[in-house]
Amino acid sequence: MQTIQHIALADEWDEAQREGTYATSTLGVSIDAAGYLHASFPEQVRPTLERFYSDVDAPLVLLTLDPEALAEAGLEVRVEPAAPDDPESERFPHVYGGVLPVNAVSSAESLELPGTQA
């Protein structure tokens, strides 16, 4: 399986580590509300940052998910079109089945904000 990653606000990830689960699907939307966790393949991270996070001024982290730990937690990865009504649109991984246990994250790295140079 391809590497699956998720962009998170650093403070939400910090809170998740204290609580044991991460419950945010995407900016301002919970997994419960969306029905799944939004994720990306590595080549989709930069375009996703530029499109959806360009106005975020809070620290971000890039979470890399562990497929085995996801399966053990009863979570399912589905690769689906970004636009459900357009099956030809770009396909992204979505994680279904509930909140994300923090032990299903194999790494968390600081992520530079769009428009900044390393």
From TrEMBL:
What this protein is called in its record is DUF952 domain-containing protein
Q: Which domain of life is it from?
A: Bacteria
The region annotated as signal peptide is: none
State the organism named in the record.
Dermacoccus abyssi
Q: What is the lineage of its organism?
A: Bacteria, Bacillati, Actinomycetota, Actinomycetes, Micrococcales
InterPro entries for this protein: DUF952
